[in-house]
Every structure is written in C-alpha cells, then in structure tokens.
Design the sequence.
C-alpha cells in the first residue's frame, strides 16, 4: 500500500517510480546477485503470493523489487517501457535477467500453466490463433493438435515472439 492505497499495477506506476532515484536506492541498499540488502540482511518480501517481490523504501512506500534493481543499475525507467524477467521467473531479479520492453513485447513473453497458447479445440477441430499488435489472427483449423501447434510455432517465429513465449511454467 502507498499512503493507504493498494499498490498499483505496473502500467500505472510511471509517476511513482520517477520519485525514486538511483542515488536514493544506493543510499539505502546494497545489491548482490538479484537481491537488495540493508545492514547485511536481505530486504523485501513476496507480493501477495504472485511471485513478484516488493521492497519498502522510506517509511511506507512499497515498490516492485525488479524495478528498484533496474533503477539501481540503470537509472530511470523510460515512460512506456516495462521490466521483463527474461527467464520468466518473477523472483529472479538478477540484473542480467531483466530487460526493458514495451507492453506488447512483454505479452509475447507469456508462459502457460495449461495447454498450448493459441491452440484450442472447437467444433471437432483444432484451431490455432495468434495476437499481434492487439489484432487476433486466425491460423486455421486442423484435424490434429500437432498440426495446430506447428502452425502456431511458425507464426511465433514469423512475428518475432520471444523464445520463452508459451513455455510451461
């Protein structure tokens, strides 16, 4: 919570993160291997069991640890960009695992806990779809699931999706 309000979504954080600076973070914390320490103790906690760690800076203000670590190393996060965990592990905040991406790029790096992304069974056929630049494209209907998966994989390459996209998490 920030001043009694719930922590906003990452897309709503533009102004809040501009208030903290690289110098401010470095005064409060030491960085080592994806973790922030103060007085020799690791700081931060898991945010609502979603896998993202939060860190408190100041008296009450809570920030996502991956964003604080990015600012610690690189300074301000440019408007319109987000921090992506390259390997998909939300609590792996090593700087080499973080990169700046647009929302569209970040969405291309989505994993799944069930099934295959973009492949559905409907009306006794397998259908493959992909969303590119907020537009859903139909890749066809197939008798075999493997053919639908192949069509989806070809489309992911064609539209430059990240190699992590669709991995099992």
Sequence:
């Amino acid at each position: 919570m920030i001043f009694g309000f719930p922590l906003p979504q990452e897309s709503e954080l533009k102004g809040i993160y501009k208030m903290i600076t690289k110098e401010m973070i470095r005064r409060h914390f030491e960085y080592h291997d994806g973790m922030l320490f103060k007085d020799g103790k690791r700081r931060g906690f898991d945010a609502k069991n979603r896998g993202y760690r939060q860190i408190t800076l100041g008296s009450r203000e809570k920030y996502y640890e991956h964003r604080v670590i990015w600012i610690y190393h690189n300074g301000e996060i440019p408007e319109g960009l987000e921090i992506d965990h390259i390997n998909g592990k939300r609590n792996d905040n090593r700087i080499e695992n973080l990169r700046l991406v647009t929302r569209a790029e970040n969405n291309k790096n989505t994993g799944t806990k069930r099934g295959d992304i973009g492949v559905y069974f409907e009306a006794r056929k397998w259908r493959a779809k992909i969303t590119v630049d907020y537009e859903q494209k139909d890749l066809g209907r197939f008798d075999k699931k493997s053919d639908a998966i192949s069509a989806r994989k070809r489309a992911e390459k064609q539209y430059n999706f990240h190699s992590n996209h669709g991995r099992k998490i």
User: Anything to note?
Assistant: DSSP finds five helices and eleven strands in the chain. Residues 1-8, 11-15 have pLDDT under 50 and may be disordered. Residues 69 and 164 are 22 Å apart (CA to CA).
